[in-house]
Amino acid sequence: MTHPLQFLEDERAELVAQGAFRLARVLDGAQDPVCRVDGREVVNLSSNNYLALANHPRLRDAAIRAVETCGAGSASVRTIAGTMAAHVELEQHLARFKHTEAAVVFQSGFTSNAGTVGAILGKEDVIVSDALNHASIIDGCRLSRATIKVYKHADVADLRRVLDEVRGQYRRTLVVTDGVFSMDGDVAPLPDIVEAAEAHGAIIMVDDAHASGVLGHQGRGTVDHFGLHGRVHIQVGTLSKAIGVLGGYVAGPRVLIDMLHQRGRPFLFSTSHPPAVTAAVREAFRILEEDDALLARLWDNTRYFKDGLKALGFDIGVSTTPITPVIVGDTRLAMRLSDRLFEEGVFCVGIGFPTVPRGSERVRAIVSAGHARRDLDKAIEAFGRVGRELDILPSVTRA
Question: Is this structure's pTM higher than 0.85?
């Protein structure tokens, strides 16, 4: 008798044949700019640890103190017995940081998006979404049961076209976009998006997962970067990338946060953050607010690394942020490039279809504030050697 899950064997075999089946590499130790992965010391270009805070001594100390004072976990959802004073203090800190009336923390950036859209919209509403929005936005839109309309990536003229088409047909309209797009590293044209949405009376939501701690004054995100405070109604972000810990948040008007307390399913049905997480996150924000040294170092490293790859002749797309795609246009080649870089001591993960469209397969590199110049030089040199070996680059070397 055929096993009921035999179809998964067939699908796995198909992924293997396509060169797209990958097992996660294993990190041995802390998430550092240079670390040990699968037993090999590598320059880590695969982490979202933009500001090198994940292993920062101040965050470690804050987490340890919180465990000693408040224990290892909260053991309850927020609405029963799981709201600790530390959660309230963190949310107040976040609201001040984002210049909003209030904020709420969720278990992840993914649940922040998925839980928010479904909590405020329903089947009588319409969502107008960028074509390259993150999977968590897409899932949140689907869960809401609202009608979903997609506009061409970062194309404000197409956004206006869609908004004109849906005008007057639905109860409410939500325009939603990533602030920084995770695969290409480009920044949404937020001022024009806001202007188009305002002209149609739409709610505006921005997911700043890859902009939190990266763009804006002290890392406040794209809304701050473009000077749009008060005009973006819903700001979503993460605490697990540049902030270096775990979780996500939603910031906005008090009434929005109050209703997420009542309807946000991750808030209602998932155990709250453990004390170590809330304490470490608050310490990360204190570091951001003290000075801009880490941000300055992140952007210096970003410019240096991009310049090095461009000088070699790589296609790095339209990125203007620390996310740097190296586009090769074929899944097998992207995975081979990733594997060979790893053998050369550079950890840079390959990304293929369906995560990115066919023809745009790539490895995605992310530099951090913690990388030394010698780390970046090693990575650039490895990209050059492997790129020529795999016929991605011409044989002429960089001067």
Answer: yes
